[in-house]
Amino acid sequence: MRYFLFLFLSLHLYASTLHLATSTNPSRLNPLLATDSSSSEIAGFLFNGLVKYDKDSSTIVGDLATEFYYEDNTTLLFKLNPHAKWHDGKNVSAKDVVFTYETLMSPQVVSPYSANFRFVQSVEALDDLSVRVKYKEPYFKALETWMMGILPQHILKDEKNMMNSSFNTNPIGTGAYKLHQLEHSKNIILVANENYFEGKPKIERISFHVIADPMTRFLMLKSRALDIGTIEPMQFERQLDANFVANTNIYEEISYSYTYLGFNLRLEKFKNPKIREALSLAINRDELVEILFFKHAKVCTGPFLPRTNAYNPEVKAPTQNIQEAKKLLKEAGYDEKNPFTFEIATSNSTPIRPYAAEILQNQLKQAGVVVTLKVMEWQAFLNMVVFPRNFETVLLGWGLSPTPDPYMFWHSDSDKKGGFNLTGYKNPLINKMIEESQSIVDREKLSGMWREMFKIIVDDNPYLFLYIPTSITTVDKKIKNVKPSLSGIWHNYILWEKDEIR
Predict the structure, then answer these.
(1) Which residue ranges does the chain devote to CATH 3.40.190.10?
(2) What is the average pLDDT value for the chain, to the nearest integer?
(3) What span, in angstroms and rounded, lies between the C-alpha atoms of 148 and 51?
(4) pLDDT tens digits, residue range 210-241?
(5) In this structure, are residues 174 and 92 in contact, taking their beta carbons and an 8 Å threshold?
(6) pLDDT, tens digit, for every residue of 195-212?
């Protein structure tokens, strides 16, 4: 603790440093391979896609591309910004876009993001700044696909093993910031890119401090050693003092994420739908939200989120019914003498989830279910539990795009190494609906199919959908020009300024 305090206070001598915290070491700062939240967040400052969402996540606008349009319903043309440069000063080229696509689709690269490109037929560089992308058929997420960060062909063209490349921890991107220092379990420092095509950021440095302990992160935020951070509802309601509130802007918004308890459907014990229904009926989701969040969350009712066209408001969360849960368990062969038992595995990267696991354990006990808990450090949890599918159940969350892609999570083809179908969910009807929906560009028709999928998936109970947290973000008033929007606060970060320390 003293070490962190000394570190933060000494680094605050740099008036133009934005101090942030991350709970874990980033695994790969390569946009094709950045699948954990820490890696994705940091890589977002280092790389650009061809396009991005606007500040309200409602419209797609140019990023590396200054112009983009459909030549026909299966052909996209992108015109690149002639002022975009790599961090080493080289110009961004159409060849980089082709290289990124070919790398992602290479059998040597294992990435869940390759699924987004499954309908691409060809990517062609027409000249240095023009790219034509042809699709096999119309695809509803054709543009969103190209939000993927682009890689430098001139640096990586001879790379033999992208999965273990030194580039993954020493990246060269196009973003507003460049990697200056990466010290595992200490600091990741980014510096402003003086040649950034949208203009050099006004804050010179971003320092990510790797702090695994949530309480230490909170204390650093309270002491104003961190400039921006997220806080838990209990902290917001009961642990903020008047001085902190007076010196901080607090923004609250329902998040584009949800938390779930996922069953490993490959295991015999979870293949019986009565078991999954019984466990769902044993859960009191409203109690979970009230205890954990002081109402700064809402119950999650299914796989797609409110504020999206895929959300089905007619599907309601099950009401806890212990007697019905016991009845279903008995029909499946379980009772007090032979209780149903399983393990919940989760991570301590956020303070909420271990508590959520304990509440679930106690709620399920009321139905005679015996639950054991395994709480692990984030990277160990990913490498030993999630990626090898070595679990009975996992308590995890998904952050979703405003335009969801059911294929990545719910199609049986995504039950593979590097895929996001972690539970091994397989429903031939859902597979067929996903496959049919992918070529539908009529948004109203597509939304109707998504809402049908929503209900079918919920009825199958591959997950217990639990809660959608509210994101509570605190920003020190020393940070100027922050303009919150529907997408959050980060859309204009290159214009932020930080007051000098007085």
Answers:
(1) 2-47+163-253+475-498
(2) 92
(3) 8
(4) 998 888 999 999 999 999 999 988 889 889 98
(5) yes
(6) 999 999 999 999 999 998
- Cite the residue boundaries of each domain of the chain with CATH code 3.10.105.10: 257-470
**pLDDT value at residue 450:** 94
Of the candidates 202, 170, 204, the residue with the CA atom closest to the CA atom of residue 190 = 204
**Residue 189: burial class (beta carbons within 10 Å; 0-12, 13-18, 19+):** buried
How far apart, in Å, do the first and last CA atoms of the chain sit?
A: 25
Helix (H, G, I), strand (E, B), or coil: what is residue 8? Answer: helix
CATH 3.90.76.10 in the chain, residue ranges: 51-160
d(CA 267, CA 289): 29
Phi then psi dihedrals of residue 59, to 5 deg? -135, 145
Topology given in CATH for the domain delimited by 257-470 = Dipeptide-binding Protein; domain 3 (3.10.105)
Q: At what angle do helices 352-365 and 285-293 cross, to 10 degrees?
A: 140
The pLDDT of residue 94: 98
Task: Identify the H or E element spanning 66.
Answer: strand 65-72
Residue with tokens 């919150």: 484
Work out the angle at residue 68's Cα, subtended by the Cα atoms of residues 67 and 74, and round it to the nearest 5 degrees: 165
Q: Residue-wise over 446-464: b if at least 16 C-beta within 10 A, else e? A: bbbbbbebbeebbebbbbb
Q: What are 260-295's pLDDT values in tens digits?
A: 999 999 999 999 999 999 999 999 999 999 999 988
User: CB–CB of 28/39 below 8 Å?
Assistant: yes
Regarding the domain with residue range 51-160, which homologous superfamily does it belong to in the CATH classification?
Dipeptide-binding Protein; Domain 1 (3.90.76.10)
Which pLDDT score, from 0 to 100, does residue 9 have?
47
According to DSSP, the β-strands at 341-347 and 297-299 are unpaired
Q: At what angle do helices 428-437 and 443-460 cross, to 10 degrees?
A: 160
Confidence class of residue 155 from pLDDT cuts 50, 70 and 90? very high
| Segment 45-55 mean pLDDT | 96
**What pTM did the predictor assign?**
0.75
CB within 8 A of 114, min separation 6: which ones? Answer: 104, 105, 418
Maximum Cα–Cα distance for the chain, whole Å?
73
The pLDDT score that the predictor gives to residue 183 is 85
Architecture of the domain defined by 2-47+163-253+475-498? 3-Layer(aba) Sandwich (3.40)
DSSP 481: -
467, 292 contact by CB (below 8 A): yes
Nearest Cα to 212, choosing from 329, 38, 458, 341? 38
Distance CA 130, CA 141 (A): 20
Distances (CA, A) of 101 to 34, 70, 105, 156, 159: 16, 19, 6, 13, 15
Query: What does the angle CA 103 – CA 433 – CA 34 come to, to the nearest 5 degrees?
Result: 30
pLDDT of 8 reads: 47
